[in-house]
Amino acid sequence: MGSLAVVITVSDRSAAGARADTAGPLAVTALREAGWECSDARVVADGADSVETALRAALDDGARLIVTTGGTGVRNGSALAERG
Questions:
Q1: How far apart are CA 46 and CA 63, in angstroms?
Q2: Worst-scoring range by mean pLDDT, 5-19, 23-37, 47-61, 68-82?
Q3: Which residue, 74, 62, 75, 72, is CA-closest to 14?
Q4: What tens digit of pLDDT does each residue of 26-60 get?
Q5: Residue 76: band (very low, low, confident or very high) from pLDDT cuts 50, 70, 90
Q6: Is 38 exposed, middle or buried (0-12, 13-18, 19+ CB in 10 A)?
Q7: Rounded Cα gap, residues 70 and 62, in angstroms
């Protein structure tokens, strides 16, 4: 068994169930094929608090690699755009 990797998709629409997460599963597949232990992608809403919580949970779970995906563009109310 390889080291643990976690994929986090940041998307308001996917978190609300209005849009399927397509990038997260692709990343998970690539990581598994490369020998990483990786559960299904975790989907969280856009926002500093939700992303921080997901990152901390991944670290608490023992992740050695965290891949984030999502964000199809900057929009009004996008909290993460100001953090970059």
A1: 21
A2: 68-82
A3: 72
A4: 999 999 999 999 999 999 999 999 999 999 999 99
A5: low
A6: buried
A7: 22
